[in-house]
Automatic annotation (TrEMBL):
It is found in: Cytoplasm, Cytosol. Pathway: Amine and polyamine biosynthesis; carnitine biosynthesis. The lineage of its organism: Eukaryota, Metazoa, Chordata, Craniata, Vertebrata. Converts gamma-trimethylaminobutyraldehyde into gamma-butyrobetaine with high efficiency (in vitro). Can catalyze the irreversible oxidation of a broad range of aldehydes to the corresponding acids in an NAD-dependent reaction, but with low efficiency. Catalyzes the oxidation of aldehydes arising from biogenic amines and polyamines. This is 4-trimethylaminobutyraldehyde dehydrogenase. GO terms for molecular function: 4-trimethylammoniobutyraldehyde dehydrogenase activity; aminobutyraldehyde dehydrogenase (NAD+) activity; formaldehyde dehydrogenase (NAD+) activity.
Length: 572
């Protein structure tokens, strides 16, 4: 799922044609006389009514956000979000309902308990959400079904126009949305803005595809003919993780809606806030009420959704263990699933690399979003000849990463998502030491000097050496800022070790030898391979996994990102 056009990465080309590689999996496949258009993740979608007609169905814009700032309560509506953008850490509380149904915020009619959402920078509770019960889930499905009946009859062009308008609104409100994301997730505002860019780009991308997805006309003997249609599936469910809350909601909903489906989205209970902003934007852009509903909750709510008789497909982003449960539940209902799961990706640094770039690449591969990124390259294999030089430089640069208030412009590392997760990450470092690794830098809880951040979930980024392939820190996904450095001698050896994992989400290679770069990328068992860069995920390319990292990607490697740009700077 991720999409990151990082600074310095070549700009995405504008709208895509019918042969674009990312036709989504939200249509009902029909027997086809010709092979799919291109590539492994090729599936498709389609078709109706004028934007003017759509606008007439809109409900009045709902109250948007209530923010408490400097002791004053202010009300914001979707258009004027300047006040949200100007907010500082420690001030926001979310008081409005967090479910979205039929084009409006609502409280769920039943619930199986409550969950608290935090501002990770301060440890403050910013929202208490009701975990939607079975009746609420049923109402959300009913509302989505009604919207689907309107939406499925529209042309691809008409659907694309709504998505384009939604993309425009996201762009217009970028700073406000990024601010909310930073407050609820803890990632730096610098990064959150990049996430919002890749979010509207995703909507534009699928808006561009919507009109060009079509069936086929097939000539049969004696003047007869047949034809195929691409039909939407119906009501699709999206279940998201907490590390890219807004972006995941966009990545799931844009292809589903472009293909003519309705979507019910369940965010992680840790990050309930920003999906509502997307729901309000879709409504404002002209989507019929119910087309994009949000239900809040944890595992139980997710199960009600996956098991609902009228849900046609589940698209899930999260951990491998939960992915297994989702696949099992969906199999029982004979429902297609898309799984975007965890990873433990290798980053291979050859001695002929541009060392400065390789160091930047290793930082972005490990410390982006405080290391809480599915495709992070946390097994850093460095060729023996340069390992000392590389290690010295990577430690120096890591020391320069500014940790602190994520809403400040020059912060590059914020807090982890919550207290239990921080403890879990620190636990991995403890066990790494017990298994013989050396902590070269970091790996400690961190208290920023600003007193309001005292109860935030901060730690220093950690670099481990003397690692072996069999250590827990090298085998398991830590999902925190922990880099393990491993020496290697030859290409054949490192390939074997890099592929010796049950995951297969991403991989990276740094070398100046262009032939070796592509040879190694081709042999790495990973959904995305980065060459001389890392964690750039242009929306035009598919994002999938090998092995337990995700859905079947077929015979082809989904994406190799050969970058002409230097990796993003994390170090100041
Ligand atoms: N491959 C990708 O694109 C991608 C992107 C982001 C995160 N991830 C992965 O996500 C994980 C971190 O996210 P997380 O901690 O939120 O994952 P998680 O598996 O704990 O939860 C993900 C979502 O599933 C829901 N859920 C939990 N149990 C469920 C159940 N039994 N039935 C239905 N829904 C259920 C949660 O409420 C949440 O919304 C990491 O492993 C990371 O690598 C993958
Ligand atoms: C670079 C974005 C990756 C999203 C997965 O966690």
């Amino acid at each position: 799922m991720p999409a990151h056009s990082r600074p310095g990465f070549p700009k995405a080309p504008p709208p895509r044609g019918p042969n674009s590689p990312r036709i989504p999996s939200f249509y009902r496949p029909r027997p086809s006389a010709t092979p799919p258009l291109t590539g492994p993740r090729l599936r498709s979608a389609l078709p109706a009514r004028k934007i003017v007609g759509l606008l007439s169905e809109l409900r009045p814009q709902q109250m948007f956000l209530r923010a408490v700032s400097s002791g004053l309560t202010s009300l914001f509506r979707t258009p004027g979000l300047a006040a949200v953008t100007a907010m500082s850490t420690g001030t926001f509380v979310q008081l409005d309902p967090l479910n979205y149904r039929d084009g409006a915020r609502v409280e769920p009619v039943d619930s199986s308990g409550t969950e608290k959402a935090f501002e990770p920078a301060t440890g403050r509770v910013i929202a208490t959400l009701q975990c939607s019960g079975e009746t609420e889930v049923h109402l959300a499905v009913k509302s989505a079904k009604a919207a689907f009946e309107i939406w499925r009859k529209k042309s691809g062009m008409e659907r694309g126009q709504v998505l384009l308008e939604a993309a425009r609104l996201i762009k217009e409100q970028k700073d406000a949305i990024a601010t909310m994301e930073t407050i609820n997730n803890g990632k730096s505002i610098f990064e959150a803005r990049l996430d919002i860019d890749t979010s509207w780009q995703c909507l534009e991308y699928y808006a561009g595809l919507a009109a060009s997805m079509a069936g086929e006309h097939v000539q049969l003997p004696n003047g007869s003919f047949g034809y195929t249609r691409r039909e939407p599936l119906g009501v699709c469910v999206g279940i998201g993780a907490w590390n890219y809350p807004f972006q995941i909601a966009c990545w799931k909903s844009a292809p589903a809606l472009a293909c003519g489906n309705a979507m019910i989205f369940k965010p992680s209970p840790f990050t309930p806030v920003s999906a509502l902003l997307l729901a309000e934007i879709y409504t404002k852009a002209g989507a019929p009420p119910g087309l994009f509903n949000v239900v809040q909750g944890g595992a139980a709510t997710g199960q009600f959704l996956c098991q609902h008789r009228d849900v046609a497909k589940v698209s899930f982003t999260g951990s491998v263990p939960t992915g297994m449960k989702i696949m099992e539940m969906s199999a029982k209902g004979i429902k297609p699933v898309t799984l975007e799961l965890g990873g433990k990706s290798p980053l291979i640094i050859f001695s002929d690399c541009d060392l400065e770039d390789a160091v930047k690449g290793a930082l972005v591969a490990n410390f982006l979003t405080q290391g809480q990124v599915c495709c992070n390259g946390t097994r850093v294999f460095v060729q023996k000849e340069i390992i000392d030089k590389f290690t010295k430089e990577v430690v120096k640069q890591t020391q320069n990463i500014r940790i602190g208030d994520p809403l400040l412009e020059d912060t590059r590392m914020g807090p982890l998502i919550n207290g239990p997760h921080l403890e879990r990450v620190l636990g991995f470092i403890k066990s790494a030491k017990e298994e013989g690794a050396t902590v070269l830098y970091g790996g400690e809880p961190y208290e920023p000097t600003d007193p309001k951040l005292k109860h935030g979930y901060y730690m220093t980024p950690c670099i481990l050496t003397n690692c072996r392939d069999d250590m827990t820190c090298v085998r398991e996904e830590i999902f925190g800022p922990v880099m393990s450095i491993l020496p290697f001698k030859t290409e054949a050896e490192v390939l074997e070790r890099a592929n010796d994992t049950t995951f297969g989400l991403a991989a990276g290679v740094f070398t100046r030898d262009i032939q070796r770069a592509h040879r190694v990328a081709a042999d790495l068992q990973a959904g995305t391979c980065y060459i001389n860069n890392y964690n750039v995920s242009p929306v035009e390319l598919p994002f999938g996994g090998y092995k337990k990292s995700g859905e079947e990607v077929g015979m082809h490697k989904p994406a190799t990102v050969a970058s002409a740009a230097t990796p993003v700077f994390l170090s100041l």
